[in-house]
């Protein structure tokens, strides 16, 4: 790696001192805030689309639920799909550089999303997809900055918890401002304001985010052949193509039907590409995107539970919002106000998780988070239309953030501590890939069930039946995650018991 690279030109700190210990209190505060803004704006870009979804759809003369779902799914698709390769770019070219570039990229495509009002919904979806690429740059590199700046300990636990806590609050703030602009002014101002926020974050980040010293035990060859191998271009192409094609197939099927030939062709080709990705990674890649030797079965378990939980969440957040606006007749602004409690509940959950992570088994934390996701989905699925907000809906909105803010900090921290500094970008990428890709893919699962149980959606009762069917998919995903976490917890206790028996036997023989 070039010695004059601005992300790699600092003298490495001593192993006994974390980078954070060189900060002044103000610099550390500003650093943590601006890095947490990566999570904040990522989730805000879900809220700004979800809140005025009907208003934006009407401006494009779109009423099809399948097309409207693409406004959310297209964004989450690229956030989840491109994180792995962008995490590797951060490892090679510097986390700080990619982090700042992510804000600027997001700003450009936020402007395009607003301008699409003069064109059509295809340009809007296209802009949303490329917005997601900007956030794909922000999330892994922001997490890698935190992981490389702080050494393991209670302080790092709490900062990762704070990073996770910004998720529900980002979505809520985004939804509120989107509702204000859409109801009282003009919806494109939501995206133009997001562009201004992103540019401001890039400017502040340039001042307060420090370059992370390069691990000089790793030398990156920046020749054409070196870049090909270092970035694992064949693996990246196969992985991205596979994930995109599978996702497009599942999210397009509810719109055109599974009987349409290109839908299942895309699915089959996507699965083949994913298979090719694993073959490349295991057999041919000299520097694979996924360093499998760095991850244990515990990590695989965590990622599986996160996939179930956040898939459940993706369905829940989309359909509960549609339910509130269409069947309870609340405006986008009132719906945003009804989503304020999750922000407060999420903060409590995040800091509780930060406290528990060093005191409670990860398997118990994951089980509690999956329980929260599942219970929230159950309450949404069975809520009567004419019931007061303060009954099942309010309780569900209080419970669900505990799933978000218990699973995300625990998973990211476990992976950060499990790998070396040179793999911080990849470690951060795995969790955020699973989170965002699961949200997007789960909407395809739910949409498929919806169109098969709503009898064509010709009446309000049929549409509601479809919504409830989709929410039961969320319940199923959450329940599967609970079963996985319960099994793992049992297995962990059993393994410890057997290990203790073996130790006692060996001690007796000696």
Automatic annotation (TrEMBL):
For this protein, the record's Gene3D superfamilies field holds: MFS general substrate transporter like domains (1.20.1250.20)
Where it sits in the cell: the answer is:
Membrane
The domain of life is Eukaryota
Annotated Major facilitator superfamily (MFS) profile domain residues: 31-493
Q: Name one GO cellular component term.
A: membrane
Bilayer topology? Multi-pass membrane protein
Write down the InterPro entries for this protein, in alphabetical order. Answer: MFS (IPR011701), MFS_dom (IPR020846), MFS_trans_sf (IPR036259)
Q: Name one GO molecular function term.
A: transmembrane transporter activity
Q: Which Pfam families match?
A: MFS_1
Task: Indicate yes or no for the key word Hydrolase.
Answer: no
Give yes or no: UniProt keyword Transmembrane.
yes
Keywords in alphabetical order = Membrane, Transmembrane, Transmembrane helix
Principal place of residence: membrane
Which parts pass through the membrane? 29-55, 67-86, 98-119, 125-146, 158-183, 189-210, 231-250, 262-280, 300-321, 364-383, 389-415, 427-449, 469-490
**Which PANTHER family does the record cross-reference, listed alphabetically?**
MAJOR FACILITATOR SUPERFAMILY MULTIDRUG TRANSPORTER MFSC (PTHR42718), MFS TRANSPORTER OF UNKOWN SPECIFICITY (AFU_ORTHOLOGUE AFUA_5G09940)-RELATED (PTHR42718:SF41)
Name of the protein: Major facilitator superfamily (MFS) profile domain-containing protein
Organism of derivation: Aspergillus nanangensis
Q: Read off the lineage from the record.
A: Eukaryota, Fungi, Dikarya, Ascomycota, Pezizomycotina
């Amino acid at each position: 790696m070039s010695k004059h690279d601005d992300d790699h030109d600092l003298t490495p700190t001593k192993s006994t001192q974390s980078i954070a210990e060189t900060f002044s209190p103000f610099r550390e505060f500003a650093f943590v805030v601006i890095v947490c803004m990566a999570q904040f704006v990522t989730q805000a870009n879900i809220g700004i689309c979800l809140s005025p979804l009907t208003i934006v759809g009407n401006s494009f003369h779109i009423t099809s639920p399948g097309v409207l779902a693409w406004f959310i799914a297209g964004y989450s698709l690229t956030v989840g799909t491109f994180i792995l390769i962008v995490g590797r770019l951060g490892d090679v070219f510097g986390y700080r550089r990619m982090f700042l570039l992510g804000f600027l990229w997001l700003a450009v495509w936020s402007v395009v999303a607003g301008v699409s009002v003069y064109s059509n919904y295809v340009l809007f979806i296209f802009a949303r997809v490329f917005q997601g690429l900007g956030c794909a740059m922000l999330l892994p590199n922001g997490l890698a900055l935190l992981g490389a700046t702080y050494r393991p300990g209670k302080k790092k636990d709490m900062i990762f918890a704070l990073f996770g806590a910004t998720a529900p609050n980002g979505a809520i703030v985004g939804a509120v401002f989107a509702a204000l602009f859409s109801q009282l002014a003009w919806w494109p101002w939501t995206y133009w304001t997001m562009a201004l926020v992103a540019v401001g974050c890039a400017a502040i980040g340039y001042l307060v985010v420090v370059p992370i010293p390069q691990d000089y035990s790793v030398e990156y060859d920046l020749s054409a052949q070196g870049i090909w191998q270092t970035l694992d271009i064949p693996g990246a192409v196969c992985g991205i193509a596979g994930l995109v094609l599978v996702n497009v197939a599942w999210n397009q099927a509810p719109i055109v039907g599974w009987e349409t030939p290109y839908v299942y062709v895309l699915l089959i080709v996507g699965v083949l590409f994913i298979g090719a990705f694993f073959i490349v990674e295991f057999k041919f890649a000299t520097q694979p995107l996924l360093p499998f030797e760095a991850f244990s079965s515990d990590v695989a378990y965590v990622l599986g539970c996160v996939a179930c939980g956040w898939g459940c969440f993706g369905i829940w957040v989309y359909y509960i919002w549609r339910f509130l606006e269409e069947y309870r007749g609340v405006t986008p602004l009132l719906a945003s106000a009804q989503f304020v409690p999750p922000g407060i509940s999420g903060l409590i959950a995040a800091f509780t998780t930060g406290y528990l992570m060093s005191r409670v088994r990860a398997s118990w934390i994951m089980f509690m988070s999956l329980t929260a996701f599942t219970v929230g989905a159950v309450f949404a699925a069975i809520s009567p239309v004419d019931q007061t907000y303060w009954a099942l809906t309010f309780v569900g909105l209080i419970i669900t953030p505990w799933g978000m803010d218990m699973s995300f900090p625990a998973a990211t921290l476990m992976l950060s501590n499990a790998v070396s500094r040179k793999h911080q970008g990849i470690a951060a990428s795995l969790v955020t890939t699973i989170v965002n890709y699961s949200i997007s893919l789960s909407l395809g699962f739910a949409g498929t069930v919806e169109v098969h149980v709503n009898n064509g959606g010709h009446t309000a009762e049929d549409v509601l039946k479809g919504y409830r069917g989709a929410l039961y998919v969320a319940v199923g995903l959450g329940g599967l995650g609970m079963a996985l976490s319960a099994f793992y917890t049992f297995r962990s206790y059993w393994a410890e018991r057997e290990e203790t028996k073996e130790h006692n036997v060996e001690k007796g023989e000696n």
